[in-house]
Structure to design on (357 residues):
């Protein structure tokens, strides 16, 4: 259990019963004190153990399980509050028109309609059988695609396609409520690969990358638009627990393609504590990552490297904002296991440091 793992020092109290309980005004369950949970995950030295012992203030019984309580005010935030990057000099390279939510139809089944998720990108690779799409990404401005580092390293990228909807047709048309057709897709070669310099293949940490295109995306095409990024302090500090996001894609991975037409699905975000419990057998602790998935449903909708988006207030209007990048997940579909996403909020400054005019 995660609780037992977290209480590496407090369990001594139960065994020896030699330390007295603290009295404080904010005695609460350890798992509800974010500052204590962060400290326990990232620091386990002697001073940290001592701090936990001194902060112990009792137990709470839940379903015959003893849950520790601590004086939460004893713990200081381990991380600095996120900075507002909307006025960063590089932020001006991110278009203000982004993440448009089309309200004409509500999210229903799995099949989307043309230009509903107009920032989706496909990455093609050189293979023995010719160019093959194997990863996805998102358009963040006219020159850059945001994707995962595992989609970039040790790969021969053929190019990037934007504006796609139905991979079996040359032109995508929508017949309801009015007949309309998308302009042709736009294909680009890639001039610069920018994987995160600290990407760790074994732990999937820092699984984020940028692709600089050899040309500029034409946004006059109504079927192509960039996604919004969480540059403001409010968006970067948003509590994602018990929220829902949307993934859209064709199910592209290194193993092949699931769908010909762009699909979408709502996915429930899972708390870090629950995510750690689920991955405990793999000794994986999601740092700068989060889990999402409907554990009783098939989850193979999005593309590897593709985005998970959440509706948010963005400069006074409701927009889709990209909060995650598909990093890794179940090997097979429908195995009641969540997918893990790189937390884009933790990398906005990295993105802004690496994009150019």
């Amino acid at each position: 259990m995660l609780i037992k793992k977290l209480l590496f020092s407090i369990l001594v109290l139960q065994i020896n019963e030699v330390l007295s309980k603290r009295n404080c005004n904010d005695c609460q369950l350890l798992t509800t004190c974010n500052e204590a949970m962060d400290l326990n995950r990232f620091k386990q030295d002697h001073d940290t153990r001592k701090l936990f012992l001194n902060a112990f203030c009792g137990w709470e019984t839940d379903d015959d399980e003893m849950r520790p309580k601590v004086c939460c005010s004893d713990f200081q935030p381990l991380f600095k509050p996120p900075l507002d990057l909307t006025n960063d000099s590089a932020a001006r390279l991110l278009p203000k028109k982004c993440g448009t939510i089309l309200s004409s139809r509500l999210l229903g089944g799995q099949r989307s309609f043309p230009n509903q998720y107009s920032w989706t990108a496909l990455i093609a690779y050189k293979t023995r059988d010719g160019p093959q799409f194997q990863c996805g990404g998102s358009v963040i401005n006219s020159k850059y695609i945001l994707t995962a580092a595992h989609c970039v390293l040790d790969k021969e990228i053929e190019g990037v396609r934007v504006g796609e909807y139905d991979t079996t047709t040359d032109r995508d048309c929508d017949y309801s409520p009015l007949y309309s057709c998308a302009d042709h897709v736009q294909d680009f070669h890639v001039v610069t690969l920018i994987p995160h310099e600290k990407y760790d293949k074994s732990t999937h940490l820092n699984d984020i990358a940028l692709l600089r295109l050899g040309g500029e995306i034409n946004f006059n095409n109504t079927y192509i638009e960039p996604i919004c990024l969480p540059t403001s302090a409010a968006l970067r500090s948003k509590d994602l627990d018990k929220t829902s996001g949307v993934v859209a894609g064709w199910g592209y991975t290194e193993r092949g393609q699931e769908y010909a037409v762009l699909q979408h699905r709502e996915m429930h975000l899972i708390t870090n504590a629950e995510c750690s419990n689920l991955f405990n057998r793999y000794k994986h602790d999601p740092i700068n990552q989060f889990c999402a998935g409907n554990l009783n449903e098939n989850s193979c909708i999005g593309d590897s490297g593709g985005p998970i988006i959440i509706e948010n207030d963005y400069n006074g209007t409701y927009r889709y904002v990209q909060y995650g990048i598909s990093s890794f997940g179940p090997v097979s579909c429908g195995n009641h296991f969540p997918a893990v996403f790189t937390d884009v909020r933790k990398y906005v400054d990295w993105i802004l440091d690496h994009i150019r005019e």
Q: What stands out?
A: The chain has two domains: 1-75, 94-353. Residues 1-75 form one domain.
